[in-house]
Amino acid sequence: MTDSLIFDGSDYVPPRDNPRLSKQYLRVFDLMKDGSSRTLKLIATTTGDPEASVSAQLRHMRKPRFGGHTIDKQYVGNGLYQYRLLVRPAWNPIEPTQKKAHCSTCHCFQEPVPQEQLGMQL
Question: Whole-model pTM?
Answer without folding.
Answer: 0.72
